[in-house]
Specification:
Layout lengths: L7 E6 L13 H20 L10 E10 L8 E11 L3 E12 L2 E16 L4 E2 L4 H10 L9
Antiparallel strand pairs: 1-3, 2-5, 3-4, 4-5, 5-6
């Protein structure tokens, strides 16, 4: 996997409380790492919106493939990009890496499906033109698709 295709990445601190009884990061914490990266991506790329109840986006699906354990003290980064942009939804691809022996190792890969959602009407809606323009400008390799 070519990490240079990911313009957006954030460091994540592995906290002692993230560990399970086996001494590695609990699988459920990977969801938190993806969420943190996803929120930062949306805030920095789509809109600096701070009222999350009016944002108009809902998480529909998460898929994670675990590749290597994360340990306390690991230098962890989450790489994030929109990999598919449809009419009412888009997919965000994530790669979680750790530094091991001076080399970057992929610890997990994930995809989250986000749906544009009108919370007042309780139904899906088209991805806004504003978001679409911002995402396409940030992700030059991406081409608009359909749901």
């Amino acid at each position: 996997m070519m990490l240079d295709a990911f313009r957006h990445h954030i460091p994540v601190e592995v906290r002692f409380g993230d560990l399970d009884a086996m001494g590695h990061v609990n699988n459920a914490k990977y969801l938190t790492y993806l969420e943190t990266a996803r929120i930062r991506y949306v805030h920095e790329v789509c809109t600096p919106h701070t009222n999350w109840s009016e944002l108009g986006m809902i998480l529909a699906k998460v898929v994670i493939e675990y590749k290597a354990p994360l340990l306390y003290g690991d230098m962890v980064e989450v790489f994030t990009r929109v990999s598919r942009l449809g009419n009412k939804s888009f997919e965000i691809e994530h790669v979680i890496t750790r530094m091991a022996d001076g080399q970057t190792e992929i610890a997990a890969q994930g995809v989250t499906t986000m749906v544009a959602y009108d919370y007042q009407a309780q139904r899906t809606m088209p991805v806004s033109d504003f978001w679409r323009e911002r995402i396409l400008a940030y992700e030059p390799a991406l081409s608009p698709g359909s749901d």
